[in-house]
Amino acid sequence: MTDRRRIGIGLISAGWMGMLHSTAYRAVRETWPDLGVDPDLVIVADPIEVNAHLAAERFGYRETTADIQAVLNHPDVDAVSICAPNFLHREFALAAAAAGKPFWIEKPMGASVAQSREIADAVESAGLITAVGFNYRHAPAVAHVRRLVREGALGDIRSVRVWLNADYSAAPDGPRTWRFVKEMAGTGVLGDLLSHGFDLAQYLVGPIVEVTSATRTFITERPAPGRGVGHSVTADSDAPPLPVENEDYASVLARFQSGAMGTFESSRIAIGSRCDYGFELSGSLGAARWNFERMNEVEVCLSGELHYGFTRVMTEPGFGEFGRFQPGAGMGLSFDDLKTIEAKLFLESILTGRQLAPSVADGLVAAGIVSAAAASAEDGRWHDVPVPTGRTTFDA
User: Fold this and answer.
1) Which of 101, 126, 123, 98 is closest to 110 using CA atoms?
2) Where are the domains of the chain?
């Protein structure tokens, strides 16, 4: 029997994403028994007492607390998940780095590129393993397209089109939560959605070196938030409306180091789009396109085929980690499975000492592109993207 190593887990914030992290940790042992790891859910911190207790009851955390320092100082905690709102990421990530705890954090890492750089610098100084929640990388269809690109099946990539359109803020009477406040969220869709798109494009094609962009806020005021927390917060219709401080929509043109050109589009008010997140790559020998709303299939066109045109390909064993979850094509994975793959990469990185999960250095690269795009939206010019530093994983 494989010797198993226990890794004690502390969870910071037990909302929806905290629940996903907890589910993912528990699934790793069953999905990768050969990895030889036992994630041990030790303690959960949340200022809302009921959230912490629900996490303990549902997932088996042994202790609950409202103090994140109690998580970081706990002798049984070896690694931490940071699932708090964006405006708390910097504080919690720096505290984890100071405590010497490897951590898995959601994106964007900070509310600004400066905050993301602070986090990346602290991690580099401490020599820590990290993970950032760029979960779309882990879709089996994406893994298949990446392999086609690496093997040259698509030839020289000439154009990259990426879109992340959703309707989660389409209702004008939705409350102005922290996501619409610049000091708390930073940018709007540039950081919230397009950070995923920038990471995914670079994971597939290589570095982005220059961008220009345009943004717009279509819903300029929203009601003040009333009762509830997280995704359940309601609007206070009796209070005066408050200004929306960041963008609802963004479009970005990009130049890649390889010579490819890219277009990126994102909206949080796109009527009819639920999770319309996708990409299309066009090369000298072929093309491929994928959409998260149909995440278990990919369309591929190779110029040497007898019947020329896009062919629908179902994901199957051999496409990334698909075979760990399902035995054959047509039996698809879910969003939660992508988070399980992410948890596995984080834990495997800790076990081996090799940075396999998307790192805070990758998060800093995405933040740098977001910052350059935001600057371009202000002055209308092309802006250089900062050169990546630290342990990026685009070529892992």
Assistant:
1) 123
2) 5-135, 138-384
CB atoms within 10 A of CB 232: 9
Segment 104-109 shows an average pLDDT of 95
Instruction: Answer yes or no: same fold for 5-135 and 138-384.
Output: no
Mean pLDDT on 322-333: 96
Query: If you ran DSSP here, which 8-state letter would residue 317 be given?
Result: T
The encoded tokens of residue 22 equal 């907890």
pTM greater than 0.70 (yes/no)? yes
> How do residues 114-166 score in pLDDT, each as one tens digit?
999 999 999 999 999 999 999 999 999 999 999 999 999 999 999 999 999 99
The CATH number of the structural domain formed by 138-384 is: 3.30.360.10
| Predicted confidence (pLDDT) per residue in 178-187, tens digit | 999 999 999 9
d(CA 132, CA 105): 5
Rounded to an integer, what distance in angstroms lies between the CA atom of residue 74 and that of residue 351? 20
Which residues contact residue 378 at a Cβ distance below 8 angstroms, ignoring those fewer than 6 apart?
Answer: none
For residue 289, give the H/E element and its range.
strand 286-291
Which has the closest alpha carbon to 281: 86, 111, 146?
A: 146
Residues 6+ apart with CB under 8 A from 10: 42, 43, 44, 45, 71, 72, 74, 77, 79, 80, 81, 101
DSSP string, 10-33: EEE--SHHHHHHHHHHHHHHHH-G
Neighbouring CB atoms inside 10 A of 312's CB total: 9
**Cβ atoms of residues 11 and 45 within 8 Å:** yes
Distance CA 96, CA 123 (A): 9
DSSP reduced 3-state for 364: helix
Q: Cβ distance 79 to 57 under 8 Å?
A: no
Q: What CATH code would you report for 5-135?
A: 3.40.50.720
Q: Tell me which residue of 139, 122, 236 sits closest to 196, measured CA to CA.
A: 139
- pLDDT of 1 higher than 80: no
Cα separation, 110 vs 132, in Å, equals 11
